[in-house]
Amino acid sequence: MTHTRTGIIEIAVPLPLDRTFHYSVPGHLRAAVRPGVRVFVPFGRRKVTGYVLGPAPSTGGDLKDIIEVLDDAPLFTPGELAFFRWIASYYLHPLGEVIKTALPAGINLESRRSETDRAGGQEAETIKGGRNVLRERFYRATEGATEAASVRGKGARILLYLLEHGEASRSRLNSLFSNPAAPLKRLVERRLVTVDEREVYRDPFAEEVFEPDPPRALNECQSAAYDRIAAAISRGEFAPFLLHGVTGSGKTEVYLHAITHAVRMGKTALVLTPEIALTPQLVKRFRSRFSHGIAVLHSGLSPGERFDEWRRIRRGEVSIAIGARSAIFAPLENLGIIVVDEEHEASYKQCDGVTYNARDLALVRGKMEKAAVVLGSATPLITTFYAARHGKLHYLGLPERVRGLPLPETRILDARRLKNMTFSAELADALAENLKNGGQSLLLLNRRGFATFLVCRDCGHVFRCPNCSVTLTYHRARQRHFCHYCDFSLPAPSVCPGCNGSDIGLFGKGTERLEDEVRELLPGARVARMDSDTTAGRGGHARILKRLEEGHIDVLIGTQMIAKGHDYPGVTLVGVVSADATLNLPDFRSAERTFQLVSQVMGRAGRGAAPGKVLIQGMAPDHYALARAAAHDYEGFFDDEISFREEAGYPPFSRLALVNLSCTAEQPVEQAALEAAAMLREMRRVMNARVEILGPAPAPLAKVRGRFRWQILLKSGNRTDMKKLLSAFRTHWNPLRIIRTNVDIDPVDTL
Ligand code: ADP
Ligand code: ZN
Fold first, then answer.
1. How high is the mean pLDDT of the chain?
2. Which terminus of the chain has a smaller tally of CB atoms within 10 A, N or C?
3. Which CATH number fits domain 409-450+509-646: 3.20.20.70, 3.30.1490.110, 3.40.30.10, 3.40.50.300?
C-alpha cells in the first residue's frame, strides 16, 4: 500500500517508551485526523490511545492503520505541543505520558462513553459532560432598559442589578431576590430584559455569593511594580519578575491590577497557587473582582468537574484560570500573564508519575508564549533571589505593609530550658493576655497527632512502622497508632510487641496533644485545630478559616497549614511552639524551609488595627534561620544561606538530579544502586561530562511503604552535560525487574 505524505502521522502513546510512532491513516479517516486529536491504534497485541503530533514523512516501511479517531476537535495546540515536548525533554519523560498528564483525567470518561455510543450504532456526536452540564436561563437588560422610568419595586431592583452586572443566571437571581419569576416575566414582556437558555457547567463555588470588590488605588510601590508588569504585557514580550513583598504588602492587589490590564488587552491570565483549599481568600478575591470569565481548578473537583472547567478554558469562554500546580497546563491561549503566588512553596513540585515543577514551568511557558511571569513571595527561594540579583529576573520590591501597618514584634525563646513543658512562661502569659484582650492567637506546631514517639517503659521497645523507617504516631481521637507515610496503623492501646508490657510512654507532642494543653492552660477559650486530621473532606479548611474570620475561635492550633496566606485582622498573637521540626531535617533546604515557615506564620499576626506579637520557641535559638526570620531580615538570611550553598555546591551554584532506586528487598536495591553509580561514573568518563556523582547511599528515609530506598545525587553546573549523562543512563540502565528507578530533576528535597 502506498501513502501520500498526509496519509502518515506521528503519534505519541502514554507508555514508558522514549520514542514516538508512525501510523498510516485509511482514506475514510483522513478528513478527521488533525494534530492534537486522539486516535485508537493497534500496538503490539494491544490497542491503545495515542495523540496525533502531526504528519510524518514516508519512511517506506510497512505501517499499521489507525483504527479510529476519538476527538472532533484538537485537544492541544501546536504551541502547547512545543511546551509538552520541552517538559518531556527536560524532565526525561515519554512525550505521550506528558500529554496524558497535561490533559484532564475526565477526558477519558468521555471517550469511553463515546465508544459505547458508537457500539450502539449511534451517530458519533460530541458528548456532553453528563451531570455537570445543565441548561440554565440567562437574563440580560436590553438597550431600551436604561430609559425605563416606569418600572417599580422588585422589578426595578432586578433591572438595576442586570444593568450593573450585564447579565445574570436564573439561579443567581433566585438567590438574590425572593421569587423573581413574576417581575422577570413582566420585564421580558416589556422587552426591557431578554432571556436565553444556555449550557452551563456546575460551579464548585456556586453556593457562595461574592460581594463585588472594587479595585484599590495602588500605593507608590505597588504602582511602580504594576507599571513595569503592565508595560511588559503591553509589549507582548516575555518578562520574568520577582515580586518580593513582605506579608500584607499588597502583592495580590498588584496581581489583580496586572490581570485586569491583560484582560483589557484581550489577553488571558493564569494564576498558580500552592493549594487552593488552603487559600479560599485568594479565590474569593478573584471571584469578587472579576465577576465572570474565571475558571477555578482545585483538588476538590471531581474528574468530571475538572474536565468541565478545562473545556470552558479550551473553548475560550474564560480569560482567567486559577489553580494549583497542574493548572500550569490550563489551555489558555494568548496568555498575557502568569502569576505564581507564594513561589517558594515546595508543593509546586509534582512528585509522582510525570514529575515537573510548575513554578519553573511558568517561566518556560511564559517564554514560549511571550507573557509576563510574576513570581510572588515574601520569602522567595534562595535560587529566585539569586537570579534577581544577577539580573535574570526583574526585581520588584514591596518593602512595607499597606496602610502603614507595622510588622509584628517578634522574640525567640530558648526551648532548651523548657524540659518537658510545652509553653515557656512568656508564651503562656502572652496567650492568656491576648485572650483577655479579645485577640485571636495562632499556634504552630508542625507535627500532627497526639504523641509522635511511643516507647515501652519496660523494655525500651520503640513503636515503628513495619513498612517505613519512621516511628508511629498516636492519634487519640481515632484511638490508633498511625504511620504518616503509609496506611499502616495499630489499635491503641497496644501491648508492647517486645515484652507484652502495657506501660507505653507517649513522647513527642503533636497538635492533638497541644490542643489539650491549651484547653487546660486557657479554660473557657474557644480552641480549634487545623491539620490534615480535622480538615478531611471538601471544604474542611474553609470551614475552620471561616469560623476564625467570624471571630468564633480564640486560639487556632495547627500544622504548617495555618501559616499560609490568610489575612485575618483579628489575629494579634502568633506562637511557634517548636521551630525545630523542620530545622533538623537532613536536607540541604531545611534552613530555607524553616525560615519560610516561621516568616509566613509570623506574617499572620497584626494585620488589623491592633499590632501583632510573635513568639518563637526553638532548641537552636541562635540559628540564623530563626534569628533572621525574627528580625524580618530576608536579605540577611539570603546572605547567610548563600554562603552555605556556595561552599557545599548546592543550587544556585549547581543543578541537582537525584537517581532514586527502590525495592521491596534490601539487598537487591543496594546492589542495583552500586551498579547504577558505577554505570554513571563510567559514562561520565566516556562522555567527559562535568557532573559530580555522590553516592550511592541509603536515602535519609531509608524505607517507605515497604520499599527500601537508595539514592545517587548528581550535581552539575552544566545543564547540557547533566542531561546527556542522564539520557544515556536511562537508555542503558536495565536493572532487575523488581528494582524501581526514577530520575528526579531539580529535586525539592533529598529525603
Ligand atoms: P499580600 O498578598 O502581599 O499578603 P494583599 O494584597 O492580600 O497582600 O493585601 C493585604 C490587605 O491590604 C488586603 O486586605 C488588601 O485588600 C489590602 N490592600 C492591598 N493594597 C491596598 C491598597 N493599595 N490600598 C488599600 N488596601 C490595600
Ligand atoms: Zn509506614
1. 87
2. N
3. 3.40.50.300
